[in-house]
Design goal:
- This protein is α+β, with helices and mostly antiparallel strands.
- The protein has 2 domains: about 50 residues, Arc Repressor Mutant, subunit A (Orthogonal Bundle), CATH 1.10.10.10; about 80 residues, Lrp/AsnC effector binding domain/regulation of amino acid metabolism (RAM) domain (Alpha-Beta Plaits), CATH 3.30.70.920.
- The protein contains 6 helices and 4 strands.
- It has a 4-stranded antiparallel beta sheet, covered by helices on one side.
- Helix 1 packs across helix 2.
- The radius of gyration is 20 Å and the shape is elongated.
- It starts with a helix and ends in a 5-residue tail after the last helix.
Length: about 160
């Protein structure tokens, strides 16, 4: 989908505040409400906007262990990747999974109540015979930066 500068301003505004009113959004991006709403709907229908979410500060509610995990599979057939990815998609504690190039096959971000819970999750993955050859665990000791707002002006310079 081709975006222009107004579309980019709309996307930036709803990233900052997904609960912004239609009128406030239109004012912020310099459009009248109806054309602004039509652009927003067009981007939703095209799948550019995938949803509106609240950000929960889970660490204000409970202790949480953040873990990064590298996974290498024993075999590299498509069926092996598919089996692993289907399993990962069903586990809520795995909040992100990336297939990567280089020395490992996947990077996972896992949130668990504690390290024991994380280890039980790993044991369950290993028991499911998903073809995991090796895994490496990295405990997150401090979050330095974790953005939820994308730098659209940098990523889509032609739209600016």
């Amino acid at each position: 989908m081709k975006l222009d500068a107004i579309d980019l301003r709309i996307l930036e505004a709803i990233q900052e505040n997904g609960r912004i009113t239609k009128l406030a959004l239109a004012e912020k991006v310099g459009l009248s409400p109806t054309p602004c709403w039509l652009r927003l709907r067009k981007m939703e229908n095209a799948g550019v906007i995938t949803g509106y979410h609240g950000r929960v500060a889970v660490r204000r509610l409970a202790q949480v262990a953040s873990v990064m995990m590298q996974v290498t599979l024993a075999n590299h057939r498509q069926i092996d990747f598919d089996r692993f990815e289907r399993a990962v998609a069903t586990i809520p504690e795995i909040v992100a999974c990336w297939a990567v190039g280089g020395g490992v096959d996947y990077m996972l971000k896992i949130l668990a109540p504690d390290i024991d819970s994380y280890q039980r999750l790993v044991d369950g993955l290993l028991d499911r015979d998903l073809g995991i050859d090796r895994y490496f665990t990295y405990i997150v000791t401090k979050t330095v930066k974790e953005e939820t707002v994308l730098p659209l002006a940098t990523l889509l310079p032609s739209a600016g």
